[in-house]
Specification:
With 722 residues, the protein is of the alpha+beta class. The protein contains 22 helices and 26 strands. β5 and β6 form a beta hairpin. The longest helix has 38 residues. The relative contact order is 0.06.
């Protein structure tokens, strides 16, 4: 029937709600139709839909269009925490826009390393108010404006919302969508070797330069006689094959990279290649959304410039997919700092990429294996059987580590046949890859990847996993060294600071120390209480720097202050003696310091200051005052410097807050504003128990959260009599 316009009646859109109930796949190409529709609406040239895995925080590619799936092979399965646009869109439930090559390199360097081409990308979540079902991305050629238009934004958002509603409906009916065939342009059957009409074919055949047509997979669909002659390969051998596979001297990743660049950017791309023994050829690639046209000619200018120097045939190179995977995951592993960072990145990035469901990382120390961490094992006892295992024991983990040869076990039967004497509880997995972690020529551990189902490890997958083992080993070696240095630094810092505070009668004390987040996490901030009689003393200071030198000098200053206090020097004399001591050390470092002699019986404190931030005094009525103390220069500058003192009333219930500049100084923030905020917080919270008050001051300090500098806080409260 007709609607009177001559057009056939519109067919109803397939609706998942109309499918029969039951645990069956969604009827019709739901994802493909939705993706194709939005791409047509916003004039994008490629895209993909990801769906959330059923039982893990992983996005899985369900359908791809516009480009071969091989281009995005590193991201077939991605952890939800992976820093790439489609994962960010799903995790943060927002549209993510990347306006071009530079924007991608700045915000998502891992993607830019693998796809360093000019293109724009938008990723949108597939989510309802309650559930995230996945995400979708589309891309445009590099000529797209760097700003996403309102029309494009609205269209993408609306399409994602519609698809999410249909996915929600399918989920309610227990009919989860499944991956669908990718939508790629394919050559028409029966036209290979022709170009339409006979006359058109004759015309192309008379051209003096070569012409070839490639589909989106890079396969040759047509080549004229001139192209075959220039490439020195018969036409029938070119058809259906990729040029870099059928032409030996084009078997180099850089030439396949130019094809990828043309398809992704949709910009004309060219390169020159040497056909042995000395002929340079020019290749110019004209892309469209259905494939590429390649023009081949002699590059005489290049031949003259290069002197037609012969070059050996390029060795067969690994597939770019393999290289892309390794590059992407290498970028992730360079971000790891400590051992737990390595473990988390392997769990979030490597395991999803290779399809593994669980992992264990084992270290080697003292002739035994030690479990450094694991993920995916419900029963920890399964993993604990590795801990403390002698390297002489015959197990897959020890054998791999001792020999440096990876082990791949495609089924439980294969593992038990080769290692019948394994002891301990049996895990629930069905296949394993044991990767030796060798760095700097020495074994540092073993990485065990476990698979829920029997798994055939093809040759190229074994190569990828072996390469990843080397990258994990380098990251683990750096992480072990970092953790060892960090442990040493923390031990040194702990040894130099007082283990406990012993305040005099009538005084309550609490202190906190936080190292800077950069460097070795060790610094020169210090505090101390010296319980001398009849008057005790307190000190806080800051030696510049966040390293072992600063920490060592801090320890010497603290020891000097204690010694000068113990022999009975007055506050100004203690400061002068400490200043001369620091100068006598011959160090180039300076130190700030605040020293006070406490007299709780008389309700007072006498203070001397050397370039240190002013303390805060909270009176018993809750009012807070910044104490403007007289003082002298930083310690270590002037041997003749003097340090005048100031007497401050310390009535019962008063709180003195002493701190280093790491608590109040932050880039771009006025220190006066910070002091006002700190004073208000002390006024509001000053009645808390002193330990809780110390935590409150540190927790609510923006500077302490960023920690570009060390932070030390010493709180003193005068107690009521009795």
């Amino acid at each position: 029937m007709s609607d009177g316009t001559g057009a056939p009646p519109a067919q109803p859109e397939p609706d998942v709600g109309e499918q029969p109930a039951g645990d069956t796949p969604v009827g019709g190409p739901l994802l493909s139709l939705a993706l194709a529709g939005i791409m047509e609406q916003v004039k994008a040239h490629s895209g993909a839909v990801y769906l959330m895995a059923a039982d893990e925080p992983v996005l899985e590619m369900a359908v791809m269009t516009g480009l071969p799936r091989a281009f995005v092979a590193p991201w077939e399965r991605i952890g939800l925490s992976t820093p790439i646009p489609v994962a960010d869109a799903a995790r943060e439930r927002r549209l993510v826009w990347v306006g071009g090559e530079e924007d991608m390199a700045r915000r998502y360097p891992r993607v830019a390393v693998v796809l360093p081409y000019p293109f724009a990308l938008a990723a949108v979540p597939l989510a309802t108010a309650d559930t995230v079902y996945g995400a979708m991305f589309v891309t445009w050629p590099g000529a797209h404006p760097t700003v996403l238009s309102d029309r494009e934004r609205d269209a993408l958002t609306a399409a994602a919302e519609r698809l999410a509603i249909r996915l929600e409906r399918a989920a309610r009916q227990h009919r989860a969508p499944r991956p669908e065939p990718d939508l790629l342009a394919t050559p028409s059957a029966g036209v290979a070797g022709t170009l339409g009409t006979v006359e058109a074919t004759r015309m192309v055949g008379r051209l003096p330069y070569g012409l070839a047509s490639l589909d989106l997979h890079g396969r040759v669909c047509f080549a004229n006689a001139a192209a075959a002659e220039l490439l020195d390969v018969p036409v029938d051998e070119l058809l259906g094959a990729q040029p870099w596979a059928s032409v030996p001297w084009l078997n180099d990743p850089m030439y396949e990279d130019r094809y990828r660049a043309a398809l992704i950017s949709q910009q004309v791309t060219s390169f020159v290649a040497l056909k042995p023994p000395g002929d340079w050829l020019s290749f110019r690639l004209y892309p469209s959304t259905s494939g590429l046209t390649v023009r081949i000619s002699r590059a005489r200018a290049v031949a003259e410039m290069m002197g037609a120097a012969p070059r050996a045939d390029a060795a067969a190179a690994p597939r770019l997919v393999t290289i892309s995977q390794v590059l992407s995951l290498a970028g992730a592993l360079t971000e790891a700092v400590g051992v737990q960072d390595v473990l988390q990145l392997v769990a979030d990035e490597v395991a999803p990429a290779v399809g593994s469901q669980a992992l264990v990382i084992l270290g080697s120390r003292g002739g035994r294996l030690h479990v450094l961490g694991h993920r995916g094992y419900e029963d920890p006892h399964v993993v604990e059987r590795f801990d403390g295992l002698p390297l002489a024991e015959r197990t897959p983990g020890t054998h791999v580590l001792n020999t440096g040869v990876p082990g791949f076990f495609e089924s439980r039967q294969q593992l038990e046949r080769l290692y019948p004497d394994r002891h301990g509880p049996v895990d629930a997995f069905a296949a394993w890859a044991y990767l030796p972690l060798i760095a700097s020529g020495r074994p540092v551990g073993t990485c065990v990847l476990a698979y829920a189902e029997p798994h055939v490890f093809a040759a190229d997958e074994r190569a990828v996993l072996t390469s990843l083992g080397g990258l994990i080993a380098q990251a683990l070696e750096r992480a072990l060294l970092y953790d060892a240095k960090n442990q040493l630094a923390h031990g040194l810092q702990a040894a130099l600071l007082p283990h406990s505070l012993i305040p005099p009668s009538g005084i309550e004390a609490a202190a906190r120390y936080l190292p800077a987040m950069h460097g070795m996490e060790i610094g020169g901030d210090f505090y101390d209480l010296v319980p001398t009689r009849p008057l005790a003393a307190a000190v806080i200071g800051d030696v510049q720097g966040h390293n072992v030198t600063a920490a060592g000098l801090m320890g010497q200053i603290r020891t000097g202050v204690r010694a000068f206090t113990t022999v009975g020097q007055a506050p100004e004399e203690v400061m002068r003696s400490t200043n001369r001591l620091l100068i006598d050390f011959g160090s180039d470092l300076f130190a700030s310091c605040l020293y006070l002699r406490l007299d709780p019986e008389r309700g007072r404190a006498v203070m001397a200051r050397a370039g240190h931030p002013p303390p805060l005094l909270r009176r018993p009525d809750g009012r807070v005052k910044v104490l403007d103390l007289a003082g002298g220069p930083l310690l270590g500058i002037d041997a003749g410097a003097t340090y005048p003192t100031t007497e401050v009333s310390l009535a019962p219930g008063s709180v003195l807050a002493l701190y280093t500049d790491g608590l109040v100084e932050s880039p771009g923030v006025d220190i006066e504003d910070t002091l006002v905020d700190l004073g208000e917080l002390l006024a509001e919270s000053g009645d808390q128990p002193l330990d809780r008050l110390a935590d409150t001051l540190v927790r609510h300090s923006a500077a302490a959260q960023e920690r570009v500098d060390d932070v030390a806080v010493l709180l003193l409260r005068a107690l009521p009599d009795g």
